[in-house]
Design a protein that fits this description.
This protein has helices at 2-15, 27-30, 50-57, 79-87, 97-103, 111-130, 134-160, 178-195, 204-226; strands at residues 19-25, 37-44, 65-72, 89-93. The protein is α+β, with helices and mostly antiparallel strands. The model is unreliable at 163-172 (pLDDT under 50).
């Protein structure tokens, strides 16, 4: 995989000489054996036609799919997206200074944000139940499970007090049993249910409620330990 990524970086740089950083992030970093694709973030001084970046990537014979995000320096990024990159990333090209410059402007994560994600997850599952179209049901159900995972991730980041001014390094790791619980959320909610779509489709609401209660308890306990 590393050799393929190096070739991809070369092809991207051939297409756009204004690229300053190329970053791999997401599940291919924190759970590589479960990942179905590779997420790549490109920072460039001046963005070119998006299709050209895709053509550059797939001019390399690669055994995996690439999800590509291209950002022109100065353009605003969603805080949720930036935090996701921050938690699991690897610099493929460049020093990382442009990523961390964006990160320095982030507000601190909070338990309130995690609780808001819980509410959003419930909204998604209610939408899933509303539709009879199986594709729409599946799309919203997957988003519901992934948003539950996002709620747990925000709570973990808040508890760990991520120091974004010092290169996004986590000051301390989650203690047990929370570390093991969080690993489950990654592997089941984020990878198996969201990415792979392998959730119990005959009992969507019941399965969601089971995981909702687990995440709610996870957030509450971390918040209590923080006091």
């Amino acid at each position: 995989m590393d050799d393929s990524l190096e070739k991809i970086c070369r092809k991207l740089l051939e297409y756009d000489s204004n690229i300053v950083e190329i970053i791999q992030f997401g599940s291919s970093i924190h759970s590589p054996k479960y990942a179905r694709d590779i997420d790549i973030l490109v920072f460039t001084k001046r963005a070119k036609n998006y299709g050209g970046y895709i053509d550059a990537i797939y001019s390399v014979d690669i055994p995996f799919n690439i999800d590509l995000v291209v950002i022109e320096l100065g353009k605003k990024l969603r805080e949720e997206f930036l935090r996701g990159v921050l938690v699991s990333h690897k610099i493929l090209y460049g020093s990382g200074k442009y990523l961390y410059k964006y990160v320095e402007n982030l507000g601190d994560p909070s338990y309130e944000e995690a609780k808001s994600a819980l509410i959003a997850a419930r909204d998604y599952i209610e939408l899933a139940e509303k539709y009879s179209n199986p594709l729409l049901r599946d799309r919203h159900a997957r988003e519901a499970y992934n948003t539950l995972f996002h709620a747990a991730r925000i709570a973990a980041m808040t508890y760990l007090s991520i120091n974004i001014s010092r290169w996004g390094l986590i000051r301390r790791y989650l203690p047990e049993p929370y570390k093991s619980e969080f690993e489950k959320y990654i592997n089941i909610l984020h990878i198996e249910y969201f990415y792979n779509g392998n959730y119990p489709k005959n009992k969507i609401k019941e399965e969601f409620e089971k995981w909702y209660k687990k995440i709610e308890k996870f957030i509450q306990e971390l918040e209590q330990r923080s006091k």
